[in-house]
Amino acid sequence: MATRNKIDNIEGMAMTADEFAMEGFNNAELAESAELDLDQAQNALDRAIWCFEQASDSALAAKARMHQLSIQFRLDLASSDEHGNDEATVEMKGTKVMESLVKECLLGEVLNVFYSIGPFLSSYTKEALERQFISKIRLAIQ
Fold first, then answer.
1. DSSP one-letter code for 15
2. How many CB atoms lie within 10 A of CB 109?
3. Shortest CA distance to 133 belongs to which of 81, 118, 119, 120?
4. Cα(112)–Cα(109) distance, rounded to whole angstroms?
5. Phi and psi, residue 36, nearest 5°
6. Percent helix, strand and coil across the chain, each to the nearest 5
7. CB 103, CB 77: distance < 8 Å
8. Whole-angstrom Cα distance, residue 114 to residue 129?
9. Mean pLDDT per segment of 10 residues, for the chain of length 142 residues?
10. What is the CA radius of gyration of the chain?
């Protein structure tokens, strides 16, 4: 491209930190899109993490990594569905993932994890989480 356009300063073509951050936001937002499957969301988050790292924004990169770990948890849960899952293990891992997501303020992903682990929870646990935690998350998102 530099040769074709006769550009002398290739460094001048590099994106600024703000441009990398904006591109990271665009990819992170794309990952939250309901139109993407989980594999595509993982790819979008890979790009977001790379952009945030190029922008030297470790906080945003960490947030994107946590979102990516959550999606990986949901992918693993879906792929191991046919092999059976230990309900106690799913509950423990799921609640830890949700706690980490709350710390990163990724509340929409908290709901996604809750819906993914719902079939593995006892009715008592599911109702208690819904009443004491998930209902508050829904209110915060609105």
1. P
2. 23
3. 118
4. 5
5. -95, 145
6. 80, 0, 20
7. no
8. 9
9. 48 78 95 87 96 96 97 88 72 93 95 94 92 93 87
10. 19
DSSP strands (E only) in the chain: none
> Could you give the CA distance from residue 12 to residue 19 in angstroms, rounded to a whole number?
13
Token digits for 7? 């550009």
HSE-up of residue 92 (Cα within 13 Å, Cβ side): 5
d(CA 46, CA 33): 15
pTM above 0.90, yes or no: no
Write down the pLDDT at residue 78. Answer: 83
Structure tokens at 79: 């792929």
Closest CA to 32 of 121, 120, 101, 95: 101
Residues 67 and 104: beta-carbon distance below 8 Å: yes
- Position of tokens 């190029």? 54
Lookup: tokens for 24: 């990271």
